Amino acid sequence: MTERAEGLRNVIVSDSKLSHVDGEAGQLIYRGYPIEELAEKVSFEEAAYLLWHGYLPTKVDLQDLKASFRLTRPLEDPMKKVLRTLPKGAQPMSLLRTAVSAAGLLDQKADRANENVTLEVCERMTAKAASIVAAQWRLRIDEDIIEPHAKLDHAANFLYMLNGVEPTELQAKVFDVCLVLHMDHGFNASTFAGRVTASTLSDIYSSVTTAIGTLRGRLHGGANTAVMEMLQEIERPERAEAYVKDLLAKKQRVMGFGHAVYKVIDPRAVILRRLARELADSSGQTKWIDMCDTIENVMTQEKGICCNVDFYSGPVYHMLGIHSLLFTPIFAMSRIVGYTAHILEQYRNNKIIRPKCQYVGDVDRTFVPIKER
Ligand SMILES: CC(C)(COP(=O)(O)OP(=O)(O)OC[C@H]1O[C@@H](n2cnc3c(N)ncnc32)[C@H](O)[C@@H]1OP(=O)(O)O)[C@@H](O)C(=O)NCCC(=O)NCCS
Question: In terms of Cα–Cα distance, which of 125, 127, 132 is closest to 204?
């Protein structure tokens, strides 16, 4: 009998040259570079180029990528019309999923965007995803869509399109690092789901739509919104310990903790914790990070479980003035680089993904005609 792997844990489905997660050592690399070094030294654009091409860009390569983003960042009228037609109070991940799917309909070449997919499509989808997330939010709060800034880079441009004001240097830098940290993570659930769709030689828009639908869940990308909702419910640092102990006593999960691969702390959480502290110190809003400290201590003592990327990204985004409903769409607009890089990799060396299940249903039943049932 074939060996069983619940949740596909530890099953190697195929080779990948994109990123590697070492869950025992708490290490993450993109194309051979440790995440700590990338977070410190490269921008979103450089990291995206690295994932797509396999090597770091030269100055000229980087200028070209920025120019391509600049050119494709503005939303065309049909997409704005789609966004205006969708229910503005809908869940932002549902809106993003629908908008990416609609982008496939609006792209004349989408049906051919499978094996022949080019990096141009990946760049376009990445640039547009940020504009879509910002535009949806503006419509939700009954404000006009803000056209992209002509000069700002990707991270700062998103904050600009969201708020209509240029972010400070610290805000832009912190947000840029957040985007780099979320870009790729091996065969996580949504990336794998996207690769499954690509493995049927479906088009890239369908594959990314699948991935976004998968990221939405609370056990995956949806956890960062849930973390912030928990912190807002706790309200004051002195209430954090009792709140978490109560959740554990009721056998409930504490969002932002535990991981399917990491057995030690998620290296991205270490970087985000430092950024959260920096933002808290600069803004004087220390209560969120104080609550996080307490919750981490309780979780270590009571369960021996470490936090993951979603634990500190929540308070970081909150301190950047971003609403918690946008946390998962922001995760998606960064991870779309990883999705598209994985989809290209899948197309290049494809085998349709088709695991088996163990049939545990009835056998040998006697058929009863409808008039006798
Ligand atoms: C991420 C996650 C789905 C991984 O799940 P998994 O690898 O299947 O781990 P399991 O669900 O088997 O959990 C193993 C044990 O740790 C406990 N555990 C795991 N995560 C926990 C959490 N966040 N809070 C409390 N207990 C947790 C489970 O209750 C289980 O304990 P038990 O063996 O006594 O029943 C899980 O840790 C989780 O639900 N975390 C919260 C959601 C989250 O932050 N997701 C973002 C991931 S980046």
Answer: 125
Give yes or no for residue 257 CB within 6 A of ligand 1: yes
97 ligand 1 Cβ < 6 A: no
Pairwise CA distance, residues 187 & 189, whole Å:
6
CATH code: domain 17-217+324-348 is 1.10.580.10
- What SS3 class is residue 243? helix
Ligand 1 center from residue 219 Cα (angstroms): 9
Residue-wise pLDDT tens digits, 253-296 = 999 999 989 999 999 999 999 999 999 999 888 999 999 999 99
Active-site residues, by number, are 220, 259, 310
pTM, entire model: 0.94
Is the pLDDT at 204 greater than 70, yes or no? yes
* Percent of the chain surpassing pLDDT 90: 90
Every domain range in the chain assigned CATH 1.10.580.10: 17-217+324-348
Closest ligand 1 atom to 309 CA:
48
| C-beta of 335 in contact with ligand 1 (< 6 A) | no
| CATH class of the domain at 223-319 | mainly alpha
- Could you tell which of 184, 215, 219 is best to mutate to test the pocket of ligand 1, judged by most ligand atoms within 8 Å of the CB? 219
142: left (phi over 0), alpha (psi -120 to 50) or beta: left
Q: What does residue 137 show for φ and ψ, rounded to 5 degrees?
A: -65, -40
Which ranges in the chain are annotated with CATH 1.10.230.10? Answer: 223-319
